[in-house]
Amino acid sequence: MRTMRAAILAVGSELLGTDRLDTNSLRLTEALERFGVDLERKVVIGDRRQALAAEVRRLVADHDLLLVTGGLGPTTDDLTREAVADALGRELVEDESLVEELRERFRAFGRRMPEVNRRQAMVPTGEVQVIHNARGSAPGLRLTELSGTTVFLFPGVPAELEGMIDSQLLPWLAERTGGASREMVVLKVASLPESEVEERIAPAYDEFGRETISVLAGAGEVLVRATATGADGERRRRLAQMEQRLAELLGRAVFARSAELTLEAVVGRLLAERSQTLVTAESCTGGLVAERITEVPGSSDYFLGGAVVYTNRLKEELLGVRGATLASHGAVSEEVAREMAEGARATLGADWSIAITGIAGPSGGSEDKPVGTVHLAWGGPDGVSHRRLRFLGGRSRVRRLASQVALEGLRRRLLDDPGE
Predict the structure, then answer these.
(1) Each residue's pLDDT tens digit, 98-153
(2) pLDDT above 90 for 33
(3) β-strand 182-190 against 150-154: which pairing, if any?
(4) DSSP label at 382?
(5) What whole-number distance in Å separates Cα of residue 402 and Cα of residue 253?
């Protein structure tokens, strides 16, 4: 069977600016990858009817499947229905049953349907199926062209799109591809450069093929993805072999085997398993580590709290950092970081502590302590350990990377500590 060829078209002038990300295309891509569909093109286009119609016409001619998101709302700049009808040479007609469905939806919320919403009940003539929207007012559509190309029109609201993917697109793909034929595993690595990850996993390229493994770098985190295709049994066997081999090559650098699992969640699980507690003492990160930890549900079981100590006075008064240490070495130093970790653990009464002091920038650096210099310390049952690093980039990047190293450092120490 020939592999299905697909394209994604994201509609909306706001997507061409700087304040809105096209996350819908990523979700659609996941669905296509799951069923082994060959995604050849992604296009983002503004709300211009003629340009949109021309793009639809071009994509329909070159692909078996076209997924369109956005432009199905009730306002005058929502032009997807009109443009698609133009591209396919069809007329738009009002579907009375859809009009009544929209009215009923508004009545359920105790409101009258504005007449402008009737635009959402306009449907192209020809072979078309309405996709009902359980999460919003904009129905989706599925059209089949004479050439055999199928066109899905989805709303741009992510939650509404998600519902239609689950109820309509995934079953449609499963029926036409024989079920999932491509699967992926993800291994996540923290605080290692992309080049070192690449070097470690190089043997796996020869064993499984370079095209089956990809490395994606982010801020303080690297994702290693392995993909396998084919019949169910063979695909899963090969995927398990790839995951095991990559885990062997990366060793303890792997903190998760799921794209959804965060470093802070892994650290929290390790603390909970050991019935141990954590406190934080932060200067340049301004509470970012504590924020990340408390993003995890149930973190109150192991996280006691933290101190944000930007000034020397608070470092002394809240954490017991000695004035002589600050005077001799400065706030950004190994000595102060160690005393912060000791003071936080002793004063707040936890098993573990994380302390961070540094220069996030853009100013405040010197020749000896340039911008990006960060001192991290971890207090634990066996004393205090320290690490000095310098991160490149802007203020937010320095803070993010510092928080990542802080959490990864604690994870490594928890693995070394057997607990009680």
Answers:
(1) 999 899 988 988 899 999 999 999 999 999 999 998 888 889 999 988 788 999 99
(2) no
(3) unpaired
(4) T
(5) 17
Amino acid (one-letter) located at 131: I
Domain ranges of the chain: 5-177, 182-256, 263-416
Q: Is the pLDDT of residue 288 over 90?
A: yes
Distances (CA, A) of 157 to 65, 71, 128, 134: 21, 10, 22, 12
pLDDT of the residue at 184: 87
Domain spanning 182-256: CATH 1.10.10.10: no
Q: Is 210 helix (H, G, I), strand (E, B) or coil?
A: helix
pLDDT digits (tens, 9 = 90+) for 176-185: 887 667 788 9
Pairwise CA distance, residues 292 & 273, whole Å: 19
- Amino acid identity of 77? D
Listed in sequence order, the DSSP H helices in 63-177 are 80-88, 96-108, 158-164, 170-177
The reply to whether 263-416 shares the fold of 5-177 is: no
pLDDT interval class at 418 (50, 70, 90): low
What is the fold of 263-416? Maf protein (3.90.950)
Per-residue DSSP letters for 48-67? -HHHHHHHHHHHHHH-SEEE
Q: Which CATH architecture has domain 5-177?
A: 3-Layer(aba) Sandwich (3.40)
Amino acid present at 319? L
- Give 286-321 as a DSSP string: TTHHHHHHHTSTTGGGTEEEEEE--SHHHHHHHH--
Predicted TM-score of the model (pTM): 0.72
- Cis check for the bond before 203: say yes or no (omega within 30 of 0): no
Q: Which two tokens stand for residue 219?
A: 């801020």
Q: State yes or no: cis peptide before 370, omega within 30 of 0.
A: no
